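Hi R.,

Here are the chain sequences for the assembly we discussed:
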Amino acid sequence: MNRIHIRGGRLIDPANAIDAERDLWLEHGKVLAVGEAPADFKPDQIIDARGKIVCPGLIDLGVHLREPGQEHKGTIGSEGRAAARGGITTLVCMPDTQPVIDTPAVWELIRRRAKACGNARVLAIGALTHELAGEQLAEMGALKRAGCVAVSNTRRPMANTLVTRHALEYASTFSLPVILCSEDPHLKAGGCVHEGAVASRLGLPGIPAAAETVAVARDLALTEHTGCRSHFHTLSTGRAIEMIRQARQGGAKLTAGVAIHQLFLMDQDVADFNTACHVDPPLRTQSDRDRLRQALRDGDIQVICSNHQPHEADAKTEPFPLTAPGISGLETLLPLSLKLVEEGLLDLATAIAALTSGPARVLDLPLGRLDPGRSADICIFDPEAIWKLDPETMASQGKNTPFAGWEFRGRVTHTLFEGRLTWSIDS
Amino acid sequence: MNSQIRQTDSQGRLRHFLSIEGFRREQLEQILDTAESFAMLPGRQVKKVPLLRGKIITNLFFENSTRTRTTFELAAKLLSADVINFNVNVSATAKGETLLDTLRNIEAMHSDMFVVRHQASGAAHFIARHAAPGVSVINAGDGRHAHPTQAMLDMFTIRRHKGDFTPLRVAIVGDIQHSRVARSQIMALNTLGVSEVRVIAPRTLLPAEARTLGVHVYHNLEQGLEDVDVIIMLRLQKERMEHALLPSEHEYFQLYGLTTERLRRAGPDAIVMHPGPINRGVEIASEVADGPQSVILQQVSYGIAVRMAVMSMALGATAGEAPS
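And here is the predicted structure of the full complex:
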């Protein structure tokens, strides 16, 4: 089906400042027109979007795809299906696959498999250092030529500050944004929860807020020094946000992101050793959570991501410190974001911007918007549909979610990737 | 994936003993009262009682501890239970088996109770969550989290010497941060209604937001010991020096070691406790450890009575059923 007419929906396209009832006309995988019907357009399919929201397909910045190397946790196929269910059309994957994405060959393998699966666009963040070991620079020039859209060392430690400096300088040579997961490994010291009252009570090794703030301070200084395009990924502390805000006001070229679960959960949720709440960075205090929410409202945070990390059941079935951190988050990214709107923290357009045009801008991608000529990546959701999350019905191979049983208002009804329907609630 | 573990049944009877947290004062007192009835046994000609005859108790130790394992084993045997000892460090998990697989395999041997020690905080909760219904779990120390029977034997020792808990000031000295014993002691003391719990340590050995545990924090030993009735010294491990938490044993003893002179700051009848094994000349001077105010050796023998109490209560047999 080459021609699709999406009829009667409320179109929210923050990049084009549109929030109005508009029809969409798609042809050959691209947006042909917004609003008025193009001349002689005979649709092969009509999607009735009355009462629904139509927005650009979501871009999830920094998902942990498990293929290659850990297919028992998730495959490109399974996670692509989960993305489609969640209204996500672009998965920007972290380089910590096995082997890591530090050569064009590994990226090429992922790219081919993603293309074969076809449920979502997969883009890669290449490694900042060889094997993510933090010692030797990765071949970033080759990675850029192969199509990597950014570089990162994920949460693996860098050998020292000089290597970090050179890595940022080298990345900026190719105008590659650097996705920074700022964390001091020494202060982290094998911790598994926020260092605070809950850690003290349960005797769990803590990760102090300073593990993040010390590293953010260092990375801000190096960003300023090198002129690199830095994106501070998955921040968890209010203090770090304060520093980022000040740096931005001083004119630094940087952006910031938060994992959606950090806006809802707190260290108190770990009580009784709830391994579903074992995440990295750890869930912080209520004051941190509130500050992160405020920063999103104020525009100091431009990106919401899922920090998707699917795991097999066994990885979470151990005593808390021995479990693998992470949440399978693709299918709750949009519903949780809509909860922020329901709670009155954000307006719908701002929430959608943080899931579409925000990440696109960070990575300088021609995505996350619906003007004519662009790829027809579209998410349609019913903002009034009420449903409950049952992990067993999730498409992701990882059922590891702390949101099991949560009730959500707002559900994806259709996802189109390059003009193809990859998810329909009726199918 | 994670449900709340109840340590008591709907009638308030003990099912598991994983942590002091969640127990009411009268429940802890009931454990102490039951322990009283067992404390007499070692002095008798026939030391065993048939309360747990026909029951199988498995010591599941993922971390070495000869002393604790032996006291649990002895307590079980005095109750006439059959005891299986699993030193899991050198068997299954070392070959890559998960904790859950280990548990399933051992469960197939029809244990009525697991006594668990593990290096990870929360391990006893984990096992209680996954154990078959009807199997009781006793926490014999998990990571930095809890060691409730050790705390209860300390409470037993305090009650024997002091009687009423309510007027007492208790000081806990040393590595609170890494101590599961200290966490359980603090919760037990507060639940039993003591007047004041103090912790005395340099900041590197204190948990973040220590005050939220319900304690007064002191960094100066002399000040912290002023007028206390009970002093609990904690064991210091040498690795605390290697991890840059302390400069040296020498300085630690200079600042936090319990000497006769410092002991004079405490109340005249203050008792000195230590969960053992003690490092003489590091935490405590020999003349204090062996002195008249020390109750360290009594703690060890009381440990058996307290563990007998907990085991018999968790398996539904009470000391009242024991033949006189």
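The interface with chain B takes residues 195-197, 199-206, 208, 272-276, 314, 316-322, 400, 404 of chain A (CB under 8 Å). Chain A has one domain: 57-369.

Let me know if anything looks off.

Best,
T.
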